[in-house]
Design goal:
It holds the Pfam family p450. Keywords: Heme, Iron, Metal-binding, Monooxygenase, Oxidoreductase. This is Cytochrome P450 107B1. Belongs to the cytochrome P450 family. The termini are far apart. Strand 1 and strand 2 form a beta hairpin. Helix 7 crosses helix 9, helix 12 packs antiparallel against helix 13 and helix 14 runs antiparallel to helix 15. The protein is an alpha+beta fold. The strands form 4 sheets. Strands 1-2-8-5-3 form a 5-stranded mixed β-sheet, covered by helices on one side. The protein contains 17 helices and 12 strands. The protein has a single domain, classed as Cytochrome p450, CATH 1.10.630.10. The protein is globular and about 70 Å long. The longest helix is centred in the middle third of the chain and has 31 residues.
Length: 427
């Protein structure tokens, strides 16, 4: 038996989740994960059960019939992502996949590169909070330009996005002991959604008038309204608004978190940082992307995904650690741990750019895999690149709250914009 598990077993059950959570969200959780994978791959506490091996995490995320997203329903209401394999889920997700045209992704990447470079040029060496100025600001501006939010205030969009993410991911029942004011977080999310809904009602009305007048605006709102008005598929204006809001909420915080984690990890090792800077200056995107997504294996935006067990379910069948997960139990698929499982990765502890992204959990897995996977895979590297091009970049420590979410990150640098590669505005 190892150090954590000795302490865990000698701790009162009521205190076990707290000590486990401290290790799960700590700065260096990899030794903790290895201990669990080796000695107790399914760890049970009164509040949650943790799963840490690759095969078991994959089963939890793929078996939506047994491990559901029911915990999202009180946060996201009727939104299809809070449903499992329903007709509405499949219909609305299919519509969104269709209108999030993959042919648009290269243009989105170029636009992200331009916006990131412009944000740092305007900052003129700092000091600057990179999260407010860059890692959140760039995805917000892309949402404004591409998804129909051109008339929204960026500060409002940040509020709408932040409080929805905060409530959904960091204000669940198993978080109650660690959140100062859980009901206050819910109230902030509800207030944000009242404001966002008011904006979206007005947006849909204006885009409808423009369509009827033969002067359509080329954005996501118009694409969805055209489809809605066609009657070809059941997708009413309420669904248009709900999905436009979902695009904002799903884009900003997750992109920011991934960018910060990748940059922070690369910066901790001089050799990795030098390789990343060389890749950032090269014309090919492949080497840079490989470095960034391997960095995110070590420091993912999400260390776990949570699900609710819908009926008594055996997990890890046929192994010496098989357990039956009881109905109603919250399960944490600790995918960060799973990405270091030697049963699924060669040399998992080695930093090895070029691993297949299809064997990672960066964008989730199964029915609830990230809708914007292709867009995120384009945006994230370009925002990271902008930081790597600051040769004398001096970042402070990242301030994170709640949990592992980046909140503030002060940067300074001296490299003038004229010494960095020119990034032209896309046509």
């Amino acid at each position: 038996m190892s150090s954590f598990l000795n302490a865990f077993d000698s701790t009162a059950p009521a205190d076990r989740w707290r000590m486990t959570r401290d290790r799960l969200l700590g700065d260096d959780p990899l030794p903790f994960y290895a201990e669990l994978r080796d000695h107790r791959p399914v760890l049970e506490t009164p509040e949650v059960t943790l799963v840490t091996r690759f095969a078991d995490c994959a089963e939890v995320l793929r078996r939506h019939d047994l491990f559901s997203v029911a915990l999202y329903k009180t946060k996201q209401g009727t939104y299809w992502m809070a449903q499992d394999d329903t007709a509405e889920h499949q219909r609305q997700k299919s519509v969104m996949y269709a209108v999030l045209d993959r042919e648009d992704v290269p243009g989105i990447r170029r636009e992200a590169a331009y916006l990131a470079a412009s944000a740092l040029d305007a900052a003129d060496g700092g000091p600057v909070d990179a999260i407010a100025t860059l890692t959140r600001a760039v995805p917000v501006e892309l949402v404004r330009r591409r998804f129909g939010f051109a008339d929204a205030e960026p500060a409002d969009m940040l509020e709408w996005s932040y409080w929805n993410q905060r409530d959904a991911f960091w204000n669940q029942p198993f978080d109650d002991a660690f959140v100062d004011d859980p009901t206050g977080v819910v109230a902030r999310r509800e207030a944000a959604n009242v404001e966002m809904r008011s904006f979206l009602i007005d947006l849909v009305q204006r885009r409808t008038v423009a369509l009827e007048a033969g002067r359509p605006v080329d954005d996501m709102a118009t694409r969805l309204l055209r489809l809605s008005n066609s009657g070809a598929v059941r997708f009413d204006p309420a669904a248009v608004m709900l999905n436009l809001g979902g695009l904002l909420i799903g884009t900003v915080e997750t992109t920011s978190h991934a960018v910060v984690n990748a940059l922070e990890f690369l910066s901790r090792d001089p050799d990795r940082l030098a390789a990343a800077r060389a890749a950032a200056r090269a014309e090919s995107d492949g080497a840079l992307d490989a470095l960034i997504f391997e960095a995110l294996r070590f420091r993912p935006a999400f260390r776990f995904f949570f699900r609710r067990c819908e009926r008594d379910t055996p997990l890890a069948r046929g192994t010496d650690y098989e357990r039956t997960i009881p109905s109603g139990k919250t399960v944490l698929a600790v995918t960060h741990a799973a990405m270091f499982d030697p049963a699924a990765f060669d040399g998992p502890d080695e930093f090895a750019p070029g691993r297949s992204p299809t064997n990672t959990f960066h964008f989730g897995l199964g029915l609830h895999e990230c809708l914007g996977r292709a867009i995120g895979a384009a945006m994230i590297p370009e925002i990271v690149r902008s930081g790597l091009l600051l040769e004398d970049w001096r970042p402070a420590a990242v301030e994170r709250r709640p949990g592992t979410v980046p909140h503030n990150w002060s940067w300074t640098w001296e490299t003038p914009a004229s010494d960095r590669p020119v990034c032209k505005q896309p046509a």
